[in-house]
Amino acid sequence: MSDKVLIIEDEPTIARLVTYNLSQEGYETEVVGNGAEGLHNAIHEDYAIIFLDLMLPGMNGFEVLQKLRQNGVKTPVIILTARNAEEEVVQGLKLGADDYITKPFGVAELLARTSAVLRRSRNEETKEAAVSGSEKIITLGDLQIFPDKYEVLLNGQWITLRPKEFEVLLYLAERPGIVITRDDLMNVVWGFDYIGGQRTVDVHVSSLRKKLELNQQTVQIESIRGVGYKLMISRKAGLTGR
Ligand code: CA
After folding, report:
1. DSSP result, 57-84
2. What is the C-alpha to C-alpha distance for residues 94 and 184, in angstroms, rounded to an integer?
3. 79 alpha carbon to ligand 1 midpoint, in Å?
4. What is the full per-residue pLDDT of the chain (242 aa) written as tens digits?
5. How far is the CA of 223 from the centre of ligand 1 (A)?
6. 4-aspartylphosphate occurs at which residues (predicted)?
7. How far is the CA of 55 from the centre of ligand 1 (A)?
8. Which one of 67, 102, 129 terminates a domain?
9. Which of 29, 53, 60, 62 has fewest C-beta within 10 Å?
10. In this structure, what CATH number is given to the domain that contains residue 38?
C-alpha cells in the first residue's frame, strides 16, 4: 500500500497544517487546491488516504467524493468540514467518506483519525487477501461468520439468524468500523425494488442485536443517528481475519 497522502484543500493554512504533521509521521504528501484536479489525481494515482475539503472552488467535495466512488476508487477518504455542519457530515458519509474532521482541529485528532482509518483499511486488505482461495470465514473478536453456509458462531455457540439478519450482519462485518447507511443496507440486502421502508432495516438490526447480545461482548452494532449503522469490535478482542 502506498504511503502517499492526497490533500484536496483550498485553504493554505489547513493544507499546511495537514501536510506538516503528516510529513512528520513519515507520509509523503501532495496538496491540490481544487476539486477537479483532486479527482483526477485520486483516480490516476495510488494513495493511502485522501483528505477532502467540502467547500472547494469549481467542483465541490461532495461531487469529488461521489465521482471517486462511482469510478470504483476505494481509497479511504476523510472529509474536512466546518464546525456545526452536521448535515454536511451526514451527506459525506452517505457518499462514501470513511470519517470526518471538523475544522479547526488539533494535531492529536488529525493523527488519531488518520491512523484509525488506515488501520481499518489495511485490515480490510489483509482480510481480503487471506480469504481468497479457501472457504471464507470472517473472524471479528469472538464472532465467526461463514458466508457460504449462512452460519454464525459467537463465543463458541451457533447463533440462529434469519436469512436477512444474516445478510445484514455479513455486510456490516465485512466493513467493520465503517458507517453503513440504511439505504446501502436496504439496497444490498433487500434490493432496489423492495417496497417496504427503512423501518425494515431497523427491525432487523434490532433483532440481530438481541441475538448477538445473548452471548457478548466484543461485537456491537452501533447506531449512527440519521445515517445508519456500524459494526464495532472492542479493542481487547482485536481484529483478525482468515
Ligand atoms: Ca474550502
Report:
1. SSS-HHHHHHHHHHTT----EEEEE-TT
2. 9
3. 11
4. 568 999 999 999 999 999 999 999 889 999 999 999 999 999 999 999 999 999 999 899 999 999 999 999 999 999 999 877 888 888 898 899 998 999 988 898 899 889 888 888 877 776 666 655 556 888 887 888 988 888 888 877 888 888 889 999 999 998 888 888 888 888 888 876 666 677 888 989 998 988 887 555 567 888 888 889 988 876 444 444 43
5. 30
6. 53
7. 4
8. 129
9. 60
10. 3.40.50.2300
